[in-house]
């Protein structure tokens, strides 16, 4: 069982969530709905969780395959349902950017395994109807 505690600490919607290990995350609503930009929007945090969960999977897989990761970043964009309550994620696109001594086919397979088998957040989003897509960039130069 996981224990999370949440309490209001700023304005109407500024919350701090604390996990069992004492890690704190700040959340807030948008300015338009009365928030004060105190923290991350909860729905954005869900996409952050997707990135974190898949990153852990991918690094574990590639380390087992003796791939050397010098740099790793993830970009995630999403689109929510318009005019609905609740407004779920309709689409989310994940771009995995890896640099190092990495076989591109192994990187692509690691990302596929994470998104289709291991990442619990990806599966949670898919079960709610989110169309999840991704691409993998290995050692691509920024022009």
Question: What do you see in this structure?
Answer:
It is a single chain. The protein is α+β, with helices and mostly antiparallel strands. The chain folds into two domains: 4-33, no CATH class; 42-138, K homology (KH) domain (GMP Synthetase, Chain A, domain 3). It is 32% helix and 36% strand. The chain has a three-stranded antiparallel β-sheet, with no helix packed on it. A hairpin with an 8-residue loop joins strand 4 and strand 5.
What are the salient characteristics of this protein?
alpha+beta, single chain, 3 helices, 3-stranded mixed beta sheet, 143 residues, 2 domains, 3-stranded antiparallel beta sheet, GMP Synthetase, Chain A, domain 3
Overall spatial form: globular
Which regions have little confidence, pLDDT < 50, spanning 5+ residues?
none
Please, how many domains?
Answer: 2
The end-to-end distance, rounded to whole angstroms, is 47 Å
CATH homologous superfamily identity of the largest domain:
K homology (KH) domain
Q: Strand portion, in percent?
A: 35-45%
CATH architecture of the largest domain: 2-Layer Sandwich
* CATH fold field value of the largest domain: GMP Synthetase, Chain A, domain 3
């Amino acid at each position: 069982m996981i224990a999370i505690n949440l309490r209001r600490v700023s304005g109407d919607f500024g919350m701090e969530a604390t996990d069992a290990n004492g890690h704190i995350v700040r959340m807030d609503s948008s300015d338009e709905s009365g928030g004060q930009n105190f923290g991350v929007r909860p729905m954005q945090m869900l996409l952050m969780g997707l990135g974190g969960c898949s990153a852990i999977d991918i690094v574990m897989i590639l380390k087992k395959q003796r791939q050397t990761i010098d740099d790793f970043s993830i970009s995630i964009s999403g689109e929510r349902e318009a005019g609905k309550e609740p407004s779920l994620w309709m689409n989310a696109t994940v771009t995995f950017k890896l640099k190092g001594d990495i076989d591109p086919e192994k990187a692509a397979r690691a990302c596929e395994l994470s998104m289709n088998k291991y990442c619990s957040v990806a599966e949670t989003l898919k079960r709610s109807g989110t169309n999840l897509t991704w691409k993998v960039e290995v050692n691509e130069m920024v022009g």
